[in-house]
Write a structure and sequence with these properties.
The complex is a heterodimer of chains A (about 800) and B (about 110).
Chain A lengths: L8 H15 L13 H26 L3 E5 L3 E4 L2 H8 L2 H10 L4 H5 L5 E3 L3 H15 L4 E6 L7 E5 L2 E5 L12 E2 L5 E5 L2 E6 L5 E6 L2 E13 L6 E11 L5 H5 L3 H12 L16 H25 L6 H4 E6 L6 H12 L4 H11 E4 L10 E3 H7 L1 H21 L4 H7 L2 E2 L5 E3 H7 L3 E4 L2 H11 L1 H6 L4 E3 L6 H7 L2 H11 L20 H26 L8 E6 L8 H16 L9 E6 L7 H17 L9 E6 L4 H7 L5 E4 L11 H7 L3 E4 L5 H8 L5 E2 L4 H10 L4 H7 L1 H11 L12 H9 L6 H20 L1 H13 L6 H13 L3
Helix pairs in contact in A: 1-2, 1-4, 2-3, 3-19, 6-33, 9-11, 11-12, 11-14, 13-14, 21-32, 22-23, 22-29, 22-31, 28-29, 29-30
Chain B lengths: L2 E6 L2 E6 L3 E2 L4 H13 L4 E5 L5 E2 L1 H13 L5 E5 L3 H10 L6 E3 L2 H10 L1
Parallel strand pairs in B: 2-4, 3-5, 4-6, 6-7
Antiparallel strand pairs in B: 1-2
Helix pairs in contact in B: 1-2
Classes of the chains: A alpha/beta (about 800), B alpha/beta (about 110).
């Protein structure tokens, strides 16, 4: 049975046909082109499974330390193309399919995105899995098998409409159900305070209900195919005993309702990038992930070890944000309650095992769960949280005697009308390593977010600047550019992105510049087709593609770009000026369904487009388009086509950003603020190859602290600002719906302009002017764009993972 | 619920023969043990070798049975499968009950007292 797989053209074709006939029961003579998609995936999957089994054998043989990356989101996107490239079997499959008269690219379009994440945090997790496998690290993702991933975005009358995205609608070709490794997760119940046989206090967790976690494994192949790890996603199922009594009572419908209730746990991904306060289901989701993961991790460890002595030497668990922060408590509960380890030893193992990555400084995104909710859902865990807190505060008291304010600030419990558990404090206390995701963000964690914790445990804090996988974001997303690079400097960049430095001498080579710009043009033509197919708007690939593609949020300041577009429009239509260069303003991104302003921003963009795109005075000099349903596969078409990348968040709000890296790697110039990883991108590409503008974080802070920022002053003192702002008051872009965008006028002028649009606006206009001038000189632009690509080596997620592996996980 | 009983000296071995002790059978199980205790049985071995799963109601019934003894005598558990043992550990009930790997050891343990 253990025959090697046949990688020849004939072998692959035979396998595809075999799966078509025997796995899917299709008559080959009658099969349509689309019928070949699943057999193709199944044949690729055969190779992945072979690699996965071989990899696991190797790990066991070498008793490798395993890294478990816990995340509520893994924004995988499509897998077929990535798997083929990483297996290095793309050409072989292409040839095998061609013999059957099939185009591999057409079949790839059949695949649906796995939308198991909201944005950057989930995509980062997916990039990390790719890098861990490529670097040969025994690293595994643990997440939830949502039935409904992030909603599908449709645009109706300019507004976002959310439509459910059922995933997987069919059995996903990549995942493998592991019903034999299902685990039982208890919830709710009460604590019975008793004594044990030694007469010691013994809290018993009774009357719980259970749900069952069934794992599904999705193979993750590293580049070269040597290592195949997996992403393990848990689906919630009703436990069969859950409904026995009810069935026996003859109440079939109640039994079914309870079954549905249990399975609701993994039904839907929460579609917000802020904290869903008070949402019991979200808390249960978080615990469900943690409980399943911890049981699995411990079970796996105990297969090859008889004591816990080597647990933290052989196991690292990384918490992606605070969403899995209950891992601290669950590990302690397991060690202390189920394996009867002394508290001190259990704590040592827990802290030695766990690492925590912070992703946000925004207060509304910091998780704080009400004590009353935890008491209801996880009564035993709340007891353990109290004990962790008691010991923490003892340590604080010992270090700073009498400093009650500090104790209050550091406590895991936030006092107030409703007591809450601060999940970030819990995660920091229970981890040996805490990191931010860009140099600036990591400094802000230490200085502004949790300075007391930094003072107590300075050695725990470090920075791990985010990265992106070059396999997905260049090799797969931009085959034309990848091909040009490989033909010029060889293929080593695929696994060592610093090799892109080899392109620097070519930045001034006119022949290479032309080839580079030709690639960009072709990518823009591809995107032009996508724009036409999805919006009906005709755009011109000879204009500058100015792109802002990311979640819609006020802090990311889509509004700032909107102000600029209006400014340019007024220059053309009221002042009769012609811009230096024609631009196509492209937006894409989803708004959280409950975030009114974000959804209105989408409407505003579409309304701007309706007016501007149909104004004859503007002609081809400017177009505004909003491409619906931004997702990984769409990003792979937008990013390679961008000339200009908008990274314009208010300084101090974006933790890192990874879109900024993807655009730059694909030869777009950045216009951006000194925020998140933009700063490090500037350091790498050079100040002359990036357009930086706007307030620095210290200036923003100064405004905030002094309260000296008055948006009305800016409005009155700068005609440019006044004229743009008045368009919202005067319904310029909503003539048939008076008052529709008045909220922007109010939000910025009457409600304080929390994200400092106006102080940055004039600098932004200046900086955009410089972009125009640079773009006029195509040779200069090409040189800068090539240098952006050449200097992106630092932002490979391979570098990020090496740093995690060396500094936090101890696997490199 | 089917329950086998074997008396060995002063010790009564009670062996549930169903695969599960859950909400549908816990009441009957509790009543049966209560009857035995009221009937004078003070040294009881609960042999769980046939049981695959006990839900929280079933575990509650076992705790109640111990309480019903009122501190006189003892209830010892033997032969739990790993799935059942993991539930005892989860609830920390393993610290309240003496749990032994075989019926012989359990009977011997209670015979000494």
């Amino acid at each position: 049975m253990d025959q090697p797989l046949n990688n020849t053209k004939t072998g692959l074709a035979t396998s595809i046909l075999w799966h078509l006939k025997y796995s899917l029961g299709k008559d080959i003579a009658k099969a349509t082109k689309r019928d070949y998609f699943e057999p193709l995936c199944m044949t690729v999957r055969d190779h992945l499974i072979a690699g996965m089994i071989e990899t696991e054998r190797r790990y066991v043989q070498e008793d490798r330390k395993r890294v478990y990356y816990l995340s509520m989101e893994f924004l995988i996107g499509r897998s077929l193309g990535n798997n083929l490239l990483n297996l290095q079997l793309y050409e072989a499959f292409q040839d095998a399919l061609a013999e059957q008269g099939l185009d591999i690219e057409e079949l790839r379009e059949e695949e649906r995105d796995a939308p198991l994440g909201n944005g950057g945090l989930g995509r980062l997790a997916a990039c990390f899995l790719d890098s861990m496998a490529t670097l040969g690290i025994a690293g595994f993702g643990y997440g939830l098998h949502y039935e409904y991933g992030l909603f599908k975005q449709e645009i109706e009358d300019g507004y976002q409409k959310e439509k459910p995205d059922f995933w997987p609608s069919r059995q996903d070709p990549w995942e493998i159900e592991r019903a034999d490794e299902a685990c039982v997760v208890p919830l709710y119940g009460r604590i019975e305070h008793g004594i044990d046989r030694q007469g010691l206090y013994n809290p018993m967790w009774l009357d719980w209900q259970v749900i069952v976690g069934v794992p599904y494994d999705m193979p993750i192949v590293g580049y070269g195919g040597t290592t195949v790890n997996y992403l393990r996603l848990y689906a919630a199922r009703a436990s069969s005993e859950f409904s026995t009594e009810i069935f026996n009572d003859g109440d079939y419908f109640r039994a079914v309702e309870e079954k549905i209730a249990a399975e609701t746990v993994s039904k839907v991904l929460y579609p917000a990038d802020t904290f869903a306060a008070g949402r019991e289901l979200r808390l249960i989701q978080e615990y469900f992930l943690v409980a399943c993961a911890v049981r699995d991790v411990v079970r796996r460890y105990l297969r090859t070890h008889t004591t816990f002595d080597a647990f933290s030497e052989k196991t690292a668990m990384q918490m992606n944000d605070t969403h899995p922060a209950l891992t601290v408590v669950e590990l302690m509960r397991l060690f202390v309650d189920e394996y009867e380890l002394p508290w001190e030893r259990a704590w040592e193992l827990t802290v030695g095992t766990l690492g925590y990555t912070n992703h946000t400084l925004l207060s509304e995104a910091l998780e704080k769960w009400p004590v009353s909710l935890l008491e209801k859902v996880l009564p035993r865990h709340l007891q353990i949280i109290y004990e962790i807190n008691r010991r923490l505060l003892e340590e604080v008291k010992h270090r700073w005697p009498g400093d009650l304010d500090r104790m209050r600030r550091m406590s895991l419990i936030e006092e107030g009308p409703e007591k809450k558990v601060r999940m970030a404090h819990l995660a920091i206390t229970g981890s040996h390593a805490v990191n931010g995701v860009s140099a600036l963000h990591s400094e802000l964690i230490k200085k502004a977010l949790v300075p007391d914790f930094h003072e107590l445990w300075p050695e725990r804090f470090s920075n791990k600047t985010n990265g992106i996988t070059p396999r997905r974001w260049l090799l797969k997303a931009n085959p034309l550019l990848a091909g040009l690079i490989t033909r010029t400097i060889g293929a080593d960049w695929i696994t060592d992105l610093d090799c892109l430095r080899g392109l620097e001498p070519y930045a001034v080579d006119p022949v290479f510049q032309q080839e580079f710009m030709d690639v960009k043009k072709k990518n823009k033509e591809t995107l032009r087709e996508v724009v036409f197919a999805t919006t009906g708007i005709v755009i011109d690939a000879d204009t500058l593609f100015d792109v802002q593609a990311k979640r819609i949020h006020e802090y990311k300041r889509q509004l700032l770009k909107i102000l600029y577009i209006i400014h340019e429009y007024l220059l053309m239509t009221e002042d009769g000026l012609t811009p230096l260069i024609p631009r196509t303003h492209i937006f894409a991104g989803k708004a959280a369904p409950g975030y009114w302003q974000a959804k209105q921003i989408i409407k505003l963009i579409n309304s701007l487009g309706d007016v501007i795109n149909n104004d004859r005075r503007v002609g081809n000099m400017m177009k505004v388009v909003f491409i619906p349903d931004y997702r990984v596969s769409l990003a792979e078409k937008i990013i390679p086509a961008a000339d200009l990348s908008e990274q314009i968040s208010t300084a101090g709000t974006e933790a890192s950003g990874t879109g900024n890296m993807k655009f730059s790697l694909n030869g777009a110039l950045t216009i951006g603020t000194l925020d998140g990883a933009n700063i490090e991108i500037m350091e790498e590409v050079g100040e002359e190859n990036i357009h930086i503008f706007g307030l620095k974080i210290a200036e923003v802070e100064k405004y905030k602290q002094s309260g000296s920022y008055d948006p009305w002053e800016w409005y009155h003192h700068h005609d440019v600002i006044g004229r743009v702002m008045d368009t919202f008051r005067d319904d310029r872009f909503s003539p048939r719906e008076p008052g529709l965008f008045r909220w922007v006028f109010d939000r910025i002028l009457n409600e304080g302009d929390y994200y400092f649009h106006l102080p940055d606006f004039l600098h932004y206009i200046e900086s955009q002017g410089q972009v125009d001038r640079d773009y006029q000189d195509q040779s200069l632009w090409a040189r800068k764009a090539i240098l952006n690509v050449a200097r992106m080596g630092k932002f490979s997620s391979d570098r990020t993972i090496r740093e995690y592996g060396r500094d936090i996980w101890g696997v490199i | 619920m089917r329950i086998d009983q074997i008396k060995t000296g002063a010790v009564l071995v009670v062996k549930p023969m169903d695969k599960r002790i859950d909400a549908s059978s816990a009441t009957a199980f509790k009543a049966k043990i209560a009857d035995l205790i009221q009937g004078g049985e003070k040294r009881i071995v609960l042999n769980l070798s046939e049981v695959d799963f006990i839900d929280s109601t079933g575990l509650g019934a076992i705790v109640s049975s111990l309480k019903a003894m009122g501190g006189e005598g003892d209830l010892v558990i033997c032969n739990p499968r790993e799935t059942v043992m993991s539930l005892f550990r989860l609830t920390r009930m393993n610290r309240v009950f003496q749990i032994l790997p075989s019926e012989e050891e359990a009977v011997a343990s209670l015979s000494k007292t």
